[in-house]
Structures are given as C-alpha cells and as structure tokens.
Specification:
Layout (H helix, E strand, L loop, with lengths): L1 H10 L6 H8 L3 H7 L3 H25 L4 H14 L1 H10 L7 H19 L5 H25 L5 H27 L1
C-alpha cells in the first residue's frame, strides 16, 4: 500500500502500472494481484486506508477534548505515516477522473467536522465558505509543513497551526457578530 501510494503520487493513476507498484514494493506483480484485483481497487484502497486512519486519530483526539489541536495533530500524524498517501488523498485523487467524485465525498466528510465548528459562530451565509476554507487551510498547512518543516518541530507546528485555526474562527465569529448587530 505504501509503495502504491508512492507510485501513484509521483506519476498519477494513468501513468502508473502494476509492474511499477510491484517494483517499488520489491515484490512481484503476481503478489500485488493476489491482494488487489485491479489497479483501481488498489488506488481506492490507499485512499480509504489513509482516510480511515485520519478519522481514527481525529476521533481519538476529540474524545480527549483536543478539538483544533486534535484536528491538526491527526492530519499531521497521518501525513507523517503516509506522506504520499496523504498527498494522494488530498491533492491528486480529486483530479483523477475515476476517483474525483469519491475523493470529493471523502473531503465532504472531513469538511463536515469543520461545519460543526463554524456553523454556530459565523453568519449563515458564510458558514459553508468558512467550513471549506478552514479545512483547506489545515490541509495546505500540513502539506507545506511536510515539504518545508522539520519533523523534530512537529509540536511547534501543531501549536502554531492550532492558534491560527482558533484565531481565524474567532475573527470570523467577531465579524459575523458585528454584521448581525
């Protein structure tokens, strides 16, 4: 699965063969086909595994009372575990014709968590934009940290990003309150 994520993230779905995935994994194509009947099945399995792991961590963090920090921590942890899978899920899959709708449905599940945060705080006409923007910001921040940050400072990133998320939502809430008044 890791090798498939790497191959797909680097070359795209259409340009990646099962032979390349097998070679990246250091196994034969026959072994790949024993587990996945088709390349499409494997691609979808990578997306599902990354997403399911993210949900698992997110829910565990929320259960501990870590809301903004928990979201940031969950995404970063998954991104560290599966950097190519994370990129595949949140950047590449939506542009692949076979997976665009599926990727958008997973994104909507994730954005729904942001909806729960912003809807009570912002003007109704801004709520959907705010939820989408909040999620996009967090994903972009994690991807930028993967590319330019130092893993030794992940806790600093989490603290900074958590503060940024809270400040953003607070600013939107203040603006919405002023508009209502």
């Amino acid at each position: 699965m890791q090798a498939a994520a790497e191959a797909f993230a680097h070359a795209g779905y259409a340009a990646t063969s099962m032979d390349e995935i097998a070679a990246t994994a250091g196994i034969t194509k026959l072994i790949v086909y024993r587990h996945f009947e088709a390349k499409e099945t494997l691609y979808r399995a990578v997306l599902e595994q990354v997403f399911d792991r993210q949900v698992e961590l997110f829910l565990a963090n929320i259960a501990q009372g870590l809301e903004a920090e928990g979201s940031t921590r969950a995404l970063l942890e998954v991104a560290r575990e599966w950097p190519d899978g994370f990129r595949l899920l949140w950047r590449h899959a939506a542009r692949e014709p076979q997976f665009g709708d599926y990727a958008l449905s997973l994104r909507d599940v994730a954005v729904n968590a942001a909806r729960g945060v912003v809807t009570p705080l912002v003007a109704p006409e801004l709520a959907e934009w705010a939820a989408q923007a909040l999620f996009d910001h967090l994903v972009d921040a994690v991807l930028d940290w993967l590319d330019h940050g130092d893993a030794a400072h992940d806790n600093d990133f989490i603290a900074l990003e958590t503060s940024a998320l809270r400040a953003t939502v607070a600013a939107w809430a203040t603006t919405s309150s002023a508009r209502r008044a």
